[in-house]
User: What shape does this take?
Amino acid sequence: MARSVTTRHKVTATAAAWVVALIIFFPILYTLITSIKTEPEAIAGFSLWPSGTFENYITVQTQRDYFKPFMNSVILSVGSTILALIIAIPSAWAMAFSPTKRTKDILMWMLSTKMMPAVAVLVPIYLMFRDFGLLDSRIGLTVMLTLINLPIVVWMLYTYFREIPGEILEASRMDGAGLWQEIVYVLTPMAVPGIASTLLLNIILAWNESFWTIRLSTTNAAPLTAFIASFSSPQGLFWAKLSAASTMAIAPILILGWFSQKQLVRGLTFGAVK
Amino acid sequence: MGSITLQKVSKVFGEAKVIPSIDLEINNGEFVVFVGPSGCGKSTLLRLIAGLEDVSGGHILIDGKDVTDAAPAARGLAMVFQSYALYPHMSVRKNIAFPLKMAKMEQPAIDKKVEAAARVLNLTDYLERRPSQLSGGQRQRVAIGRAIVREPSAFLFDEPLSNLDAALRGTMRLEISDLHHQLKTTMIYVTHDQVEAMTMADKIVVLNRGNIEQVGSPLELYKTPRNLFVAGFIGSPHMNFVTGSYAQSKNAKTAGIRPEHLILSKDSGLWTGTVKVAEHLGADTFLHLDVDGIGQVTARAGGEFGAQYGDRVYLTPDEAKLHRFDDKGLALRA
Amino acid sequence: MATQNTKTLARLMMAPSVLLLLVWMIVPLAMTLWFSFQNYNLLDPSNVSFTGLFNYQFFYTDPAFFQSIWNTLVIVVGVLLITVIGGIAIALLLDQPIFGQGIVRILVISPFFVMPPVAALIWKNMIMHPGYGVLADINKFFGLQPVDWFARYPLFSIVIIVAWQWLPFATLILLTALQSLDGEQKEAAEMDGANFLSRFIYLVLPHLARAITVVILIQTIFLLGVYAEILVTTNGGPGYASTNLAFLIYRTALLGYDVGGASAGGIIAVVLANIVAFFLMRAVGKNLDR
Ligand SMILES: Nc1ncnc2c1ncn2[C@@H]1O[C@H](COP(=O)(O)OP(=O)(O)OP(=O)(O)O)[C@@H](O)[C@H]1O
Ligand SMILES: [Mg+2]
Assistant: This one.
């Protein structure tokens, strides 16, 4: 009796969950399907059965050179994340293991810089970039993304480091480890999972950042966000090709996200939710 | 070698004066136990000695050398933490070897020392395991192993057994005592477990609010507590304190009598009391009594002494074992 | 841990990130403030002059200004409502034992990984397009007139798109929080005879309070600056119907070349964001301090 009730409950819940999940995923799924339709098929009304052509992908690559913005996205997101980690790890170490009365305030302040609306500083940043010749340069955008994500990186690392018992670091000090050895042999290996999920989340955030990357780049440094935003103009708008381009823009990070979702969740919560 | 001297050592955290000023002499090879209620500064004092905290004032000398400003590693001490503080990402072997590696010892010499320590601590079969794959007692032994390979001039233990269950605690207690007899190295041991303090210590230091109340051997503290605090803290169950006319008749503000020094009888005695709770432990029976004209009193009776809730019994304090305290709480000697 | 040595070292280690962020915050902000008092047009850069509060007055009297503030609020509040309520519902559902939990989670989290311009393009063309979108197909199937979403309900459409992007985030955090709710507590409540609703109100919701706070804090940070979704779909229109403050400033600066005006708008945006941040940080600070 009890068993059949729980089974029935499980079947109902499963059906409901799958319906919800598919509705949420549908826009992505439909884009995927449309991307392997022919153009006439794509505008011929609702259909989940494409003829399965890869023509659109080839066209996007040859006409719009997908590879270049893709490489830019990789360089910008990975570069800015690593740069941010290098700056943030020592800070997070200090805040987690040598906290003062002001540590919390400093963290809150750092986070609040993220609340500063980007548009408010668009003009000076734009002018500075123009005057320093950084417009449309990878270096300029990397620095930009590093600064934007730095508060989040510090915060995430801080919450991970704080879970490492201070006694273990003290034990290493008693054992004769200097600061450098303490960080290399003890802290970092213990924090690897946390550092990894910080790295992942920030690659994703940087990959998808679409204010500065669109505004401060034109061609040379333009990553996929700018590449895809250029499709919004009506000319040359073809459904299937647009779908192919969209798929190419999101696929790398979507796959990365799928594989790392477990690590991501905890990072996403800023350690505030267990 | 391993004599440790504290001269007017004090510690302030922000506004809080956790340790006002402490002078203490620890001789080479001694087993010294710090006891005191929670929050009295035992761990702080130990960490000051270890160098994990700066002193706010005073000096710390090890073997006559001033180490007040020396880094923890330079003091030649080893510490065993309450949480064990093992490196979770290293095998037992690597954990024990870590201090040797930091000291840049050759690998063959490291292996030899690690294996010798593992033999002493019964860890030989576990050397390749991670700490997470060990029991609490085994983890504790790894922590001790990591301490002994360094051949420190003194060991510092901060409540090392408090995470273990009662049976294991008994075994580990013996093992640590045994280790002390083998190594003959100075050990400083923090606990708030009476039994650990009484059984292991050569010398007990009773702390209260960052002050030393008394220093002495376990029996000294038991027999001749210097004041009310020590009298009440050492011994289990606690000493009974009696004020009023009985104390006055003994020329004291407060009279103290241990539960084991009350003579119980079913038919006659100085005081009469009603049994509130009787704890039958087998060998002993502890009676919590409401004594007429005196108040709450705890008494120890033999295991055979049958008593139940509500029974009337007679008690007589053993006058020879009576402790007397003046109005400042200091012990009065005959 | 806390010897003088390590403390000094710690200050030193913190310096780079603190200084960088300080410079990053103060320099552009000071420049914006300076520009906001200038008459400065990029089309005529040789002719820069002090105008006092004229730019603010100009911005303030522009009807688009109030509309854009209103639109900003609608986007933030609308998306928060949808994602928090929807997130709780979906999290409760996913917390049940179901077949294929792993795949369902992957499907639900996916929109979070989609970059804003792609999300906007997908919804604009695949879903909401009055000629070829799926919603139009559905309407046609039922013999109804297709809706031109972005012309008729521009702001609502944008809220939907942004909510779609953030729903996975809310769901995931709430689900994580739900899963940490003690099974024994739930069982005890069931034994006490609490029905689903009272269990939800007295047990689940208080337990989720912290997670909801986190969702609101983090989403608000990002929602105040929604930009790409508007750029790609409505371009702020029709008229100013879907222009939020961020987009209005962008329009003034880079389309109107009016540096002074845009800077005044920027300062106003900073003040508004600070008001929001103040209340948010206070609430969050309290809630996060265990
Ligand atoms: N880093 C610190 N900052 C401020 N106060 C501290 C700090 N460390 C300890 N204290 C305070 O100093 C006092 C003594 O603490 P300590 O840890 O030495 O007590 P303890 O005797 O070891 O107690 P327990 O038996 O509970 O371990 C406590 O009141 C504690 O709150
Ligand atoms: Mg302690």
The mean pLDDT of chain A is 84. The radius of gyration of chain A is 23 Å. The CA atoms of residues 76 and 138 of chain A lie 7 Å apart.
